[in-house]
Design a protein that fits this description.
This protein has 227 residues and is mostly helical. Helix content is 61%, strand content 0%. Helix 2 (33-45) runs antiparallel to helix 3 and helix 2 (33-45) crosses helix 6 (126-147). The chain starts with 6 loop residues before the first helix and ends with a helix. Belongs to the peptidase S54 family.
Length: 227
């Protein structure tokens, strides 16, 4: 967040002439729904009060956090299309036509490089899709609002790529579907942010949030292994 400050803002801080209102963000009244959400994101992600105030007053709705929303929407559409086509909404990987999809990753298809990433749009069933979508929106959207679409898209796609590369090494027979790799990356980023800035974080129930994020990643792994 420090790298996003303008040079004039940095000079103002250095000279002790901050142009930000002195009132705390929690004292702000008459805010609309979106500004209240921005305030929530500021306290959820940022560890320093000055950074929270700067983010709150400098934040612009354009461009919106589109990456996580587009990925989640695409995953839902792809799942609905395959569900309607196969007439199967649970354990779709057991259907022989499902594994013929050009999106599914399998170590035997390493030459088709797009599969290293496109498997994130496929899901086994409603449970896996719902779990991933919930975590992507709850954790990914606030992170994207603060750090921008480029950083979060790189983080998410790096997690997806790491998942397919890991399967290529550890299990040469297993097909891979789902956005779990990207979700692991988002959970790890959120956990790192909370742990490294524990003293400055003002988000309520810090310990509970950390446990939920960790259990979310582990639960996703358990679901994948069970399927």
């Amino acid at each position: 967040i420090s790298s996003k400050r303008s040079s004039s803002f940095k000079r103002a801080i250095a000279n002790g002439q901050r142009a930000l209102p002195r009132d705390g963000l929690l004292d702000e009244t008459g805010l609309g729904f979106y500004k209240r959400f921005v305030r929530y994101v500021a306290y959820e992600i940022l560890p320093c009060e000055m950074d929270r105030r700067w983010y709150f007053y400098q934040h612009r709705a354009c461009p919106p956090p589109v990456f996580m929303a587009v990925v989640t929407l695409t995953q839902i559409i792809v799942f609905l299309c395959y569900g309607a086509r196969l007439n199967k909404w649970v354990l779709q990987t057991y259907h022989p036509e499902y594994m013929k999809s050009p999106l599914v990753y399998h170590p035997g298809h390493r030459a088709r490089a797009w599969r290293f990433l496109t498997y994130m749009f496929m899901h086994v069933g409603l449970e896996q899709l719902g779990f991933n979508a919930l975590l992507q929106l709850m954790i990914g959207v606030p992170l994207e609002m603060v750090h921008g679409v480029l950083r979060i898209s790189f983080l998410y796609l790096a997690g997806v790529l790491a998942g397919s590369l890991t399967v290529s090494i550890t299990d040469m027979r297993a097909p891979l579907v789902g956005g779990s790799g990207g979700v692991y990356a988002l959970c790890s980023a959120h956990l790192a942010n909370v742990v490294m800035n524990w003293a400055g974080m003002r988000c309520p129930y810090k310990l509970l949030r950390m446990v939920l994020a960790l259990s979310g990643g582990m639960g996703n792994k358990v679901l994948r292994n069970w399927w």
